[in-house]
Write a structure and sequence with these properties.
With about 80 residues, the chain is mostly helical. The protein has five helices and no strands.
Length: about 80
Amino acid sequence: MSVNQLSNIENSHSVPTVETIIKLSEALCVTPDYFLLGLAKNVDKKSITAITQKAMLCTPKQQKLIGEFISLLINENY
C-alpha cells in the first residue's frame, strides 16, 4: 500500500477494500472492527491470517459480501 493510498483512505477520499482493511488490521494487530467502529479487541493473529488468505481468493463481489457479513456480525453484538 502506498503512502498516497493510505492518505486518501485517512482523508475519506477513497474507501478501502475488505482486503485492505484486513491487511491493515493484521499489520496493526487489531480486529477490523477497530477501523469500522473504533473498537479494539484481542486479536488471534492466526485466525485473522486464515481469514485474509481465504478472502484474497474471493472475487471483489464476494469480498464486498464478506465485509457486509462482518458488519452484520459486529452490529449483532451491540
